[in-house]
Design goal:
globular, 0% strand, Rna Polymerase Sigma Factor, Chain: A
Length: 205
């Protein structure tokens, strides 16, 4: 199966230099002059963007489509990018906003099934901290279901902080909220996840 970058730009340069040799800013400059150079930015971010969108919508096919659309939008909007700022936060902002637009159109999401033994593994400790619980959710593959039950404002900060490992400051820039709000949302999101997993367990008993 071709990569997302190959679907967006199927014709690759044979003599491309490894993308690791360039900063984001350098790649943006090159992409503004030569279309094929944008391929390197797609290669660098395609997996991270897909994981973020998949966590947001819970549907693999939809996430692939949205991710492809995001990179197309990014390419045509590249001239508007402020080079004084972070390209990654700009790209995640595009991904977030486009995901919200698509979901507002009423498309449904899919979830995976959860077995009771998986819940037992995650909820084995009643004293587990919210941070430990979030790690367990990712480890045992329950994140799709759990995230879909979170409010969108909590879902996005969990995705950006734990999956994309963005800093509080970067998250604040992506979601256009004060730093204190980001920290509050993240704390409440972790607490909400613990309650959601407990509800899953109670329903199976």
């Amino acid at each position: 199966m071709p990569s997302l970058s190959q679907m967006v730009y199927p014709k690759l340069m044979q003599d491309q230099v490894s993308e690791q040799h360039f900063t984001d800013a350098e790649l943006v400059d090159q992409a503004l002059q030569q279309r094929d150079s944008f391929e390197l930015l797609v290669e660098r971010y395609q997996h991270r963007i897909f994981r973020f969108i998949f966590g947001y919508c819970g549907d693999q096919v939809m996430a692939e489509d949205i991710a492809q659309e995001v990179f197309v939008k990014a390419y045509f909007a590249l001239k508007t990018f402020d080079k004084k700022k972070s390209f990654s936060t700009w790209l995640f902002t595009l991904a977030r906003n486009h995901s919200i637009d698509v979901l507002r159109k009423g498309k449904l999401t899919k979830t995976i099934s959860i077995e009771e033994n998986e819940l037992d593994q995650v909820l084995v400790s009643k004293d587990e901290s919210p941070d430990d619980l979030v790690s367990s959710i990712f480890k045992h593959g329950l994140i799709v279901n759990a995230l879909q039950d979170l409010q969108p404002k909590y879902r996005e900060v969990i995705l950006l902080f734990y999956i994309q490992e963005l800093s509080y400051e970067e998250i604040a820039e992506v979601i256009k909220k004060p730093l204190g709000t980001v920290k509050t949302h993240l704390s409440r999101a972790k607490d909400a996840l613990k309650l959601i997993l407990q509800e899953y367990r109670d329903e199976l008993l």
